[in-house]
Each structure stands twice: as structure tokens, then as C-alpha cells.
Amino acid sequence: MTYQKKKQRLSGDERKKKIIESAMPLFAENGFVGTSVRAIASAADISESLLYKYFPSKINIYQEIQKTLFGEMKLLVISDKYPPGARSLVYYIYYIAHVLFLKGIKNELQIYHEKILLHSMVKDAKYAKKHFSAVRESVGLWIIECIEEAIKDGDVDATTISPELAFWYIHHLFMSLNYSHLQGDAVFEYEGAETDLADSAIMFVLRGIGMKEPAIADYYNKRALKKEFQA
Fold first, then answer.
1. What CA–CA distance (Å, rounded) separates 32 from 199?
2. Contact criterion met (CB below 8 Å) for 117 and 127
């Protein structure tokens, strides 16, 4: 006689969590339009009718995933470490270049987020717009303040570019580098090692936003920054 394994009974919260976890990779690989409710229900090992008890529509699942991913995103908080200015600006740029990009601090949720973001950017853009708005509010305003203070201190040339555009160009450059390495190896044949790529990108950004050479010399101390992030 064979016995069928009894399915584990989940609480309502556990069931919702399983549906979300099952839907994430589907949205990441297929996008919103390419993912069906039937596929999500199958991945969650439940019927479509049971799924609808927890989520009235596919868009509700998608919105819940947005909340989950935004809640998991880890944004560096430097404001308590250094006051706004050129030093904090260099610190942040080094962080995204060497810690996020080079070390590849990514968990499964982060990879799902990036893939869903890409799908959104070429489709309805709703997820992408919400994400970039959150980025600006959480870290962008602080970076803009850093640039404005650096201008007041004489460390950045005020005529080069507006602080708002400078923030977005910093973001866009490293986002592009990140996406070019999303699957591991770079999709472009860059010259030199990845550390050289990160360092040249930092210098490109610092000079591009108008940071003056004395300020770069004072604050872009690679040995000191490396030591600080290893602490």
C-alpha cells in the first residue's frame, strides 16, 4: 500500500509569502505581461481559485512584490558618519563602485529586483518609475546635498553640471556597469581588471561632476577607503 504525502497546512500569512516567493522568479524571467496567474498558482502548488482568495488579481501580486523588494533594498547610510560634502560624496561613489559592483553584494531578491526592473523599463515602466523615485528620495537627495555643500566649500565647480543631474549620471553609470555584469562575466570586453574598471569609473565620475583635483587628491585615497570598508 502506498501513502500519499499530506501537504503541509500553511497559515494565511505563510501562504501569501509562498505565493510571493513563487511569483518573483516568474516575473523576473517573463515580466508582468508574460507571467500568468495559472503559472504562479502552479509554482505555489495551489489552485487558481485558492490564489484568488489571497490576491484578487495579478497586479495585486506584482504590487506586493514591489513592497517586498523595496523593503529588502539596502541603501548605504553615510549621513551619520560624515557631514554632507566632497568627502562623503567620494565615500559613497567608492562604496557603489567597489563594494556593490566589484564585490557583487547581491542576494536572490536583489537579482529578481534587477530583472523585474529591466522588464519594466521596456514595458509599462510603472515598477521602474516607483523604484527610481524611491532611490531619489532615499539617497539621491542626500547626494545632491553633498554636491551642493562641496560647491560651497570650493571642492566642486558649480558651472560643470547641476547637482540633480550629477546624481542621476552617477546612478546611471554604475547601474549600467552593474547590468553589464548581471549574469557574472561582463558582456563587454573592457580593458584591464575589474578593479581598474571601478577605479577609472570613479575618476570619470568625480571629474565629470566637476570635482577639483585638490579635492580628489585629498579624499580619493584608495588605500584608506579600502581599509575603512574592510573594517
1. 37
2. yes
- Quote the CA–CA distance of 153 and 84 in Å, as a whole number: 11
* This model's pTM is above 0.90: no
Return the half-sphere exposure (C-beta side, CA atoms, 13 A cut-off) of residue 220: 24
- The whole-angstrom separation of Cα 71 and Cα 175 is 19
3-state secondary structure of 203: helix
Closest CA to 177 of 200, 210, 144: 200
Residue 156 β-bridge partners: 211
- 170-204 residue pLDDT tens: 999 988 887 887 776 777 787 877 788 889 999 99
Angle between helix axes 86-94 and 194-208 (nearest 10 degrees) is: 150
